[in-house]
Design brief:
By secondary structure, the protein is an alpha/beta fold. The chain is built from 15 helices and 12 strands. Bound molecules: D-mannose.
């Protein structure tokens, strides 16, 4: 029988309230980590990488995946300094290679990484979940950011819903909305101001989806040959949410987008992070079928579920609940592993992590990064590994 998926857990570094001891008690053996203190675009030195790796190893764990080495904005907008930042990116990959870290996740989302409007959405049982509430985002865009073009992008009903939402919340809730949306980057407490955000948006005025895709291809053509030589597997993370927001283009949201990535520079080093939570927010993404077709390019799995609502909103559901059929997803993953094993590929134990978790029980005592509670994610991981075992034992 071929090996199971590699169970990993995201850890935000020494200041993460979820300690490495806690990580190892979840049963995960791999850690997903990044050097969040190094500004986006700057080189990660070998010393810094080794120091972090030693901390992880001293806890009996392995640094399995880097999530993420972020892409400097100049690369996404093709600004004049992009080649310099690509060189720096390659220097970081070389140092990761020296430290024997071989899987690197990244994303190509303009300005903001993932976006939620509510980071404490209460489910009927009191658990706290993350939610993307479409009227709240529209309210922010139309009436707080006051982006002119937004008035032609949202239809009348959406504008009405946005206004009604805005009128229904008090000043504190409004402040929380701004903070949630502007807290763009994982692993930092940095919240953009509205003015900073506007400056960033301005830089994208000449970058539509076609241009952003071209800029992605340019980046891939430059780094993938290097990654290949180093034996590093790059894996792009999809957009979250998987549709344009704030008039910014989003180009990694559908199966066609993922195909574009792998075809732009065909290589074993040019792969995917298959995030069921991000991709699952679109009803037209058939996740098990996508895994069947694109499986060989998957180097990293984020397993999470969202419950889609009727108006483009969604909230994060239990890992085995929600709109995505996790049983079918897992089955497709196991078939992919079987194919890999039969064709002699070495990467059968694809790293997977329970992506996000609710806040449950004692999680409320800790100020963890949104979505990165200990118990909620442990519950997700436990369910996922049970699902994997059950399917595998009954299928094979
Ligand atoms: C959120 C994450 C994203 C992801 C990056 C990958 O929890 O899934 O922040 O790490 O977009 O580059």
């Amino acid at each position: 029988m071929f090996p199971n998926l590699e169970q990993t857990f995201r850890w935000y570094g020494p200041s993460d309230p979820v300690t490495l001891t806690a990580v190892s008690q979840t049963g995960a053996t791999g850690v997903v980590n990044a050097l969040h203190h190094i500004p986006s675009g700057e080189v990660w030195s070998l010393d810094e990488i080794e120091a972090r790796k030693n901390i992880i190893q001293s806890a009996g764990l392995t640094w399995s995946v880097v999530e993420s080495v972020n892409i400097h904005e100049s690369i996404k907008t093709a600004a004049s300094e992009r080649d310099r930042y690509i060189e720096k990116y390659i220097a970081t990959l070389k140092n990761l290679h020296k430290a024997n870290i071989k899987t690197v996740c990244y994303n190509f989302m303009p300005v903001l990484d993932w976006t939620r409007t509510d980071i404490d959405y209460r489910l009927p049982n009191g658990a706290s979940a993350l939610r993307f509430h479409a009227p709240a985002l529209a309210a922010f865009d139309l009436y707080i950011l006051e982006r002119e073009a937004a008035f032609s992008e949202f239809n009348t009903d959406q504008q009405k819903a946005a206004k009604a939402y805005l009128d229904s919340i008090d000043e504190d809730a409004k402040k929380a909305l701004v903070k949630n949306v502007m807290a763009g980057l994982p692993g930092t407490d940095k919240v953009l101001t509205i003015d900073e955000f506007k400056t960033h948006l301005e830089k994208y005025k000449d970058t539509d989806a076609a241009t952003l895709k071209e800029n992605l291809r340019y980046f891939l053509k430059a780094i993938i040959p290097e990654a290949e030589q180093l034996g590093i597997k790059m894996c792009i993370h999809p957009d979250d949410p998987p549709f344009p927001i704030f008039g910014l283009p989003r180009v990694i949201s559908t199966e066609a987008d993922l195909e574009y990535v792998v075809n732009s520079c065909p290589s074993d080093s040019n792969g995917l992070t298959f995030c069921t939570g991000s991709l699952g927010a679109r009803a037209d993404n058939d996740l098990p079928a996508m895994i069947n077709r694109l499986g060989k390019h998957i180097h990293f799995l984020h397993l999470r579920n969202v419950q889609r609502e009727t108006d483009g909103s969604f909230y994060e559901a239990n890992h085995l609940g929600g709109s995505t059929d996790m049983y079918e997803v897992m089955k497709s993953v196991i078939w992919e592993q079987k194919r890999r094993s039969e064709s002699g590929r070495e990467d059968v134990a694809i790293p997977m992590r329970p992506d996000h978790g609710h806040k449950l029980l004692d999680d409320f005592r800790y100020n963890t990064f949104p979505g990165y509670s200990a118990i909620g994610r442990l519950k997700g991981l436990a369910e996922l590994r049970g699902l994997e075992l059950g399917i595998k034992r009954s299928l094979l």
